[in-house]
């Protein structure tokens, strides 16, 4: 590339406004694509992480009837080279009678009830991390707001949650998702406070009602049990925090009649005590076994090991009909990784992200079209300069290089600025969102009105001096600033990201650098392509005609 | 004048026969050129010929539309004739490959136009250096840029523009602009200066001073071909060629 190409590109960029408009257009297009796809990528990552956080790496599942002798299965699994821990779980839906309002008519909500063994469950999932009401480390406590209730509590609730028991009274404990009750109010900084202090949920009593289903699929009489709320969890996944209630495994099994029980022969004559004879024992069951992989073990690898272990478990017990262990068939027992279990959710989001990428690629065409139009006008304006360059010995390829290089620099600078802008927005996206949710301080809109007044004065002056362009520009500026000031004054705050719709409590704020790189390359390529047609036109200009160009 | 230029800025004459006072530097034989304006064809040159010898100042005199600028463009390799030949030191430049013709315009001839034709984004020094920045490669530029700058500064100082190095063309008077244009034309120390109505856009006094500058270059040994429609200006040249309706009268 010639020295004069470099010199002219630099001068064309720094002495004119039109290329700055092109740079701004490229920057905005790049920022738009990077922000949207980064948020969607972050959304996907959150989905993936939340799956692993909440259910471990591999799940053995036999809904409703449950897996008998799960203790043996768990011991087998924990001996596997890829398994770090395993935990039983009973997963069902139930009715939760809340302690509010005052009086005898209490609120009742439906919830997904997970009956867990807290100790092993905490080893498989990140249950401990999601427990909300705990004092936190000294640094965390220091960072808490003055009115955060967590500042005034000790570690008792935290320990009660890990034991799933109100240890003071010995009553079974329940842990609620943060949004199961209507009590907790999310603050703009992401913390929670009870709407009414009196109804802060810990230590209140709830009643859980579950409906057992027999092996034949018939519904038995429902069972209810009261639990002390010992804590609440905030996983960050809104659907979980809104719907999930944890109770101890033993209580869940008893309420669903999945606990160990004698089998009686009702066709025989009752004994002297009026009871039917016991002919066997029905083992306790869990509807799921959650398994966590050792570090570095892929979920698929663990899944294969667990599948083999379950087959061995089944074969060992197949000879004993009383064991009731079901074959490892999808009709009964499914063994899936967390990602496979969430496939219905992750799949559409992945496709949606792909579709967004394709749709937003149209912005590249906008970039290319804009640069083409701008360069076309620049080439027309610079026709005589092209003639001068040719007269002083510049080649056609040299003239071509000037405009291609010009397009390249606009693409590179625009992409760089766009990526920086996107990074700033993504990094502060939750703060921006929070700010949008607040009322605008009065000084901002008063200041905007003052600006509008200043612009109005300039409009009048331009009108008096009969300056048409000045009058037009100042009029537009007056209207825009006055409109903005009114909008800011009337703005009472709104939230775009509704956690109940978007699954997560906060907007993902991680930059997708791979996508940003691809977007930048695309923008640069299309900027050069947009410049190519005018550049070729410039190269083809006849120097004699160019020198005579008016 | 020519002696003052650094060696690399001289026109590379390796392809051409050495010039002697008697041999023609430029020779146009029976050149024809027709322009197409939409559906209309306009024959501008109808078999014109001219011979320019080394060190000679030739004025091409003709009225508007006589084809004098077209003939100058053909001599300078800006355009190619439809028929006839244009020779530079015995070689037909109209048969040059595009790259070679570009080098010819860059190194062997220097153009001066009526409307100066300076690049508005570049300052006076950069405009003057333009042919050198086009003609030298990146490495040569890195090696010799100070030498090139010195050459441009020297030319501008000689033309009384020492205080205007950093000024843009828009900040200069017409006479100053034309002096910059002449400095640019002389930057690579060409063998021929091709001037197209160099005083046509200037007042009489300024035009006179520009002609004096050209005369000074001629006295230093530079070959000059100047196009004009003004009899008096043409009288400053060694020889006047009259062009009438596309033919030498």
Protein described:
The complex is a heterodimer of chains A (550) and B (249). Chain A has 550 residues and is an alpha+beta fold. Chain A has three domains: 1-52 and 345-437 and 507-550, no CATH class; 90-283, no CATH class; 439-492, no CATH class. Chain A is 53% helix and 16% strand. In chain A, strand 7 (184-186) and strand 8 (192-194) form a beta hairpin. The mean pLDDT of chain A is 87. Chain B is of the alpha/beta class and 249 residues long. Chain B has one domain (2-10, 54-74, 97-248): Rossmann fold (3-Layer(aba) Sandwich). In chain B, strand 7 (192-196), helix 6 (204-219) and strand 8 (223-228) form a beta-alpha-beta unit. The radius of gyration of chain B is 18 Å and the shape is globular. The model of chain B is unreliable at 1-17 (pLDDT under 50). The A-B interface holds A 1-4, 7-8, 11-12, 15, 384-385, 387-396, 398, 542-544, 547 and B 70, 73, 76, 78-79, 98-99, 102-107, 111, 113, 117-122, 126, 130-131, 133-136, 138, 141, 184.
Keywords:
heterodimer, A: 550 residues, alpha+beta, 3 domains, six-stranded mixed beta barrel, two-stranded antiparallel sheet, 21 helices, 16 strands, 53% helix, 16% strand, B: 249 residues, alpha/beta, Rossmann fold, 10 strands, globular
Compact summary:
The complex is a heterodimer of chains A (550) and B (249). By secondary structure, chain A is α+β, with helices and mostly antiparallel strands.
Q: CATH topology of chain B, which one?
A: Rossmann fold
The profile of the biggest β sheet of chain B is: 6 strands, mixed
How is the main sheet of chain A built? 6 strands, mixed, barrel
- Could you tell me the radius of gyration of chain B in angstroms? 18 Å
Can you identify the CATH superfamily of chain B? Answer: P-loop containing nucleotide triphosphate hydrolases
The CATH architecture classification of chain B is 3-Layer(aba) Sandwich
Question: What radius of gyration of chain A results from the CA coordinates?
Answer: 34 Å
Helical fraction of chain A: 40-55%
How many helices of chain A? The count is 21
Molecular shape of chain A: elongated
Distance between the termini of chain B: 34 Å
- Low-confidence spans of chain A: pLDDT under 50, at least 5 residues? none
The global form of chain B is: globular
Task: List the total number of helices of chain B.
Answer: 7
Report the mean per-residue pLDDT of chain B as an integer. Answer: 88
The chain-level mean pLDDT of chain A equals 87
